[in-house]
Structure formats: C-alpha cells, structure tokens
Amino acid sequence: MTRPDTTTAPNAGALTVNGDRLWRSLMDLAETGAYDDGRTGLRGVNRLALTDADAAGRRKVIGWMEQAGLAVRVDAMGNIYGRREGTDASAAPVLTGSHLDSVATGGAFDGCLGVLGGIEAVRTLDEHGITTRHPIEVAVFTEEEGVRFGTDMLGSAVAAGRIPLDHAHALTDREGRTLGAELARTGFAGPEGVRLSPPHAYVECHIEQGPVLADAGLDIGVVTGVQGISWQEITLHGRAAHAGTTPTRLRVDAGLAAARTVVHLRSMVDSGAYGDLRATVGHLTVHPDLTNIVPARAELTVDLRNPDDTHMARAEADLAASLRTLEAGTTGLTVATRRMARTAYVPFDEGVQHVIARAADDHGLEHISLLSGAGHDAQEIAALCPTAMIFVRGEYDGISHNPREYSTPEACAHGVDVLATTLLRLAGHGR
Ligand code: HGY
Ligand code: MN
Ligand code: MN
Question: Which CATH architecture has domain 229-343?
Fold first, then answer.
C-alpha cells in the first residue's frame, strides 16, 4: 500500500470553493425524492437505494460530473466514479465521495455533501487552472444506508472486497426484489469490475449527524475512526390465539417475547458492562398485527454500536444467550436470528488526518478530532488505502436521518474548502 506523502506534501495554497454553487447543488438534489412531512410541515428526502428517486438523483449527479469534465464510469454494483486525470498517468487516484441513497425520512446533506463537495472541489481546481500529479476521483457508493436491502455500506464493502458481488446482488428488499434486479431495472448495472484498485488516499466529507461540533461551536471535525456496527434480524415465533377466549397461561405471545427482548437490550446498555454500547430496535412488527389476535410472530432488528470490539462481541453473546433463555423458558416459542451487517471499529489514517487538520488551520477554522458514531463508506475504503473524514457541523443537536437534518451554507462551504485543500495536497501539484 503506497502511503501518501502527507508530511512533506507541497504546501499548496488553501483552496476556497464556490459555496453558493455548492449550496445550490445540495438544494437542487434535495428536490429529487423530496416529500412533504405532513406531521411537521418539513420537506424530507426519500431516495432509498436503487428506487426511481435514487436513480433520478444518480443521473442528475452524473450530469454534473460530466459538466465538470469528469470521465464517468459505473461498475457492476452501481458504484459511480468520476475521474479527473492527473499529470502522472501511473499514479493511483486520490479518491473522495460518499453516497446519494437516503433513508426513507432523510435530509439534504447525509452523503450528498461528500459527493457534491467532491465535484465542487474539481470545479474549483479547474477554475484555478490547477493540475494535480495524482488523478482525483469522486465516488458514489451504492446502498450506503442499508435500509432497503439490509446491509449498510454495501457498495463500498463490495468495492473493497469485504462482501462478494453475487452476495450483494442476491440481497432482497421487503417486497422480495433483489438488488441485482433493481440495478438492471434502473440502468445502473454497470460494465466495470467492482474491485477498486487501491487509491492513493481517500477523504470523505460528511455532515456529523450528531451534536458534538455544534456543542463545541465549531464547523469542522477531523474524524479519527468509526465505531463497530452489528445489525441482526430476530424473528420470534409464538402461536396465534383469540384475544378474548385464550387464558393467559395458554398463550405463546410473540409480542410479549419481543417486548422482553427490547427491555433486555436497554438493561444491557444501562448495566455499563459493555462500555459505550448503543442498542436500537428500529424495526418491530407483529403478525397478524390485529387488535384481537395474540401475535403469532414478531420481527425486530437490533442495531448495536460500540467503539470497542471486545465489548461488542460480549454484548452480541449476551443477547444471544438471553434469546436462548427466553426460548427455553417459554413453551412453544422459537427464536431465529439472521446476521444483516457487521463491521469492527475502524481507525483512520493519522497522516491523512494531519493533512485535513492543517487544511482547516490554513482556512483559519478551529477544529476538534472525534470518533464517528455513524457508519460511513470511508470505513470500508480504509481497508484499501490511507483514509480519513471531515465532519461538518449539523444544527438542531445534529439530528439526522430526519427531515430536520440541517447544516448552514457557511459550514458546508468551510467543510468543502477543507476537502478541496486536502485533496490538492494529497494529489500534489501536477509536474
Ligand atoms: O447507519 C449508519 O450509521 C449510517 O448512517 N449508514
Ligand atoms: Mn451517510
Ligand atoms: Mn445515513
């Protein structure tokens, strides 16, 4: 793995991007897949991976890439790469980018800031007539959120070789449609091979999605790594029964078993025995989901996060043991689990973090270092090359995965100023 010369990279000037143009592109893209949230009156974004809305957003961004002079290619996972040539054709590209797919109740910034910021950095280099030694590529990774096909950071994990392409293609959504079929239907089953040859470095700019920067009164964060993620689906099989005629002692209530599981997860977190464990049951359904029928079946997802892999493994083992105890203690109940996603804690490259921090300094932007609570494509690309991230402050306690997600035009521009400067310094001036 060739390491970028991040200690003596030419002290290129600090690049300042066109913040208005960046903001216009963010707001324009946010209209693709937009919906009005009747309850809050807010306008959210729903661009689940490889839906028509996501495909429309992809086509819009490909148009902007081509307008910016990038050579665009699409791989068999639907990952999109826009390439700006360097003066050294043999040099590995400096890669940036993120994702365009959103959760069903998303905002305008998650993922989009990294992709549109990369394109804006390229436009700025062109406007300044700057050539770089290494090529620069802007990536759009497929299904980063994982909320449609059940595995997050999917496109980047396939590009980095952690998840096989055929496994990814076979994943299905809740209607049973496969990712492979949806790639073909939307026209994003590209001809290119999926395995990404190791970039020179990777830098991703992303809204923080948390309160830390806003609490500190800062626009910029240098990200030190990403905490571990464990996703699993749990299905509890009980027995349907009439709600009125069935005595409690004769019930095998799958809904009750699900509730006990949710309460157990919170008791694990509150025990403090698993470090900084975070547990979320974001999806919970009972079947047949009718008022006067004891649930025959309950399905829930468990999202565990932990910066410590040992604590994470122990938490997963505790949950598995509690499910076995629940099954053994409830006559007629059976429990099935299915692993959806699993990533370990990923530290980011200190050299790239240093270049980001110096770029922020050169823009007069105070910054702090922080761990990412959310998963990102960068954690997958870190397996291929020196990688780090730039966080941009979020407002309203950094709420994200929600229509209230917001960052200011100034903070976004500052983040992409730092991104553009970092990319230039990593790519080196053209010779
Ligand atoms: O789930 C996550 O952490 C990320 O937003 N995909
Ligand atoms: Mn994201
Ligand atoms: Mn997200």
Answer: 2-Layer Sandwich (3.30)
